[in-house]
Design brief:
This protein has two helices and five strands. By secondary structure, it is α+β, with helices and mostly antiparallel strands.
């Protein structure tokens, strides 16, 4: 599976995971000049900015390891831009990393790491 297809597969699976957990998706692939946020969701008094990383089962690196401190800073900057533009409606803010694993052409598991990093 090529990277782009794997990325799309992962983001769809991550979005489905949030919906199943009772969250409402606000945006996907939200871009600013400061950075990009894969998914933005809200629910349970929380506004979530999520970075989705997709890897094949058995990959030598865990998806979460690809979310470097530099990547975290870009996500935080983009989140600040989002909040300045749209507000937070009094919700708490959380930064998650969603690990999506696939085998063959199918998602084998999705793991949400809540509060993976802080602003």
């Amino acid at each position: 599976m090529d990277r782009k297809t794997a990325g799309i597969l992962g983001e769809v699976a991550a979005a489905k995971s949030y919906r199943k957990a009772g969250y409402r998706l606000i945006a996907s692939n939200y871009r600013t000049r400061l950075g990009e946020i894969d998914l933005i969701a809200e629910g349970k008094g929380m506004l979530i900015f999520a970075e989705v990383k997709t890897r094949a089962e058995g990959s030598s690196i865990l998806p979460r390891e690809a979310v470097t401190s530099q990547k975290q800073r870009r996500i935080i900057s983009a989140a600040k831009g989002f909040l300045e533009k749209f507000g937070d409606d009094g919700c708490n803010v959380r930064f998650d990393v969603v690990e999506v694993f696939y085998s063959g052409e199918k998602v084998s598991r999705v793991e949400r790491i809540e509060n993976a990093f802080t602003a």
